[in-house]
Amino acid sequence: MSGEVNTVATRRGRFAVSPASALVYFAAFWAAVFWLVPLLWAAATSIKPEAETTLVPLRWLSDNPTLAAYREVWAIGDIPRWIVNSTIVSVIVTALTLALCSLAAYGFSKTRFPGRSWFFAIIIAGILVPSQVLIVPLFTQMSTLGLVDTYWGIALPQVVAPVMVFILKRFFDAIPRDYEEAARIDGAGHLRVLWSVILPLSRPILAAVGIFTFIGSWNNFLWPFVATTDPSIMTLPVGLGVVQSVYGIAYAQNMAAAVISAVPLLIVFMVFQRRIVTGIAGAGIKG
């Protein structure tokens, strides 16, 4: 009998939630609701006839749902080409960001050189510089190099990511030096240690940084808009922005364009959500 009581108590203990945890869950639930409602509204509006988008009172669902808005957006824009452009640019930005930020983070975390703290502070101070301030000098530089209306001209200015250097450095700091010292005894240099020891141990955070970088590059509108004039080289956000300007105040078409832009990112998140959560949790524990 006592054994059964203990088993029931143990089971209750497993499902018991403290008041603090309950408050966190409650706040997270409503944050998710507030985040999800605009997305659902955009999706619902995109399948309404245009005449129903401004009805008063507002209605969530249409009596006559239609995909006309999607067909019109698809017909006026070169969406497949823009998706390919966004993918190419985002892959370039992600690969270069991971490579350069990993090197920088390793240098600041695992090596000692004069002025290390000052150089790191200068890099972190870059977080405080608004990207809009750099638009004119960046465009002048890309124009001088002949990189306007090219993938490299769109991608290179997005590679600078001080916050990613900071995140990776914090993670590298938590990796025990025993692994590094063991590799050095075997004759490994800095690059070998980074490639064979540090990076394999940092896969969760590298995956998270890579995915966030990819998403940020995919969503970037301002710089690709400035750096492109040729429709064939436009990224998806820029191309859909042009489509929206053609329609003006046409809510169904605008919402359809927004949904088309968001769907690839939702797919990326659904595929890599476990790696994203693992990377964030790992960063929090290690940091």
Structure write-up:
This protein folds into 2 domains: 2-46; 75-286, Orthogonal Bundle (MetI-like fold), CATH 1.10.3720. The chain has helices at residues 2-15, 19-46, 68-76, 79-110, 116-125, 135-144, 151-155, 162-173, 177-185, 190-201, 203-219, 222-227, 236-247, 251-286. The protein starts with a helix and ends with a helix. Helix 2 packs antiparallel against helix 14 (251-286), helix 3 (68-76) crosses helix 14 (251-286) and helix 9 (177-185) crosses helix 10 (190-201). The chain has 14 helices and no strands. It has 287 residues and is mostly helical.
- Strand tally is 0
- Tell me the name of the CATH class of the largest domain: Mainly Alpha
Strand content: under 5%
CATH homology superfamily name of the largest domain:
MetI-like
Distance between the termini: 47 Å
Tally of individual helices: 14
CATH-defined architecture of the largest domain = Orthogonal Bundle
Tell me the count of domains.
2
Sketch the topology as an H/E string, one letter per element. Answer: HHHHHHHHHHHHHH
Helix content: over 70%
SSE layout and pairing:
Blueprint: H1 2-15, H2 19-46, H3 68-76, H4 79-110, H5 116-125, H6 135-144, H7 151-155, H8 162-173, H9 177-185, H10 190-201, H11 203-219, H12 222-227, H13 236-247, H14 251-286
Helix pairs in contact: 2-14, 3-14, 4-8, 4-11, 4-13, 9-10, 11-14, 13-14
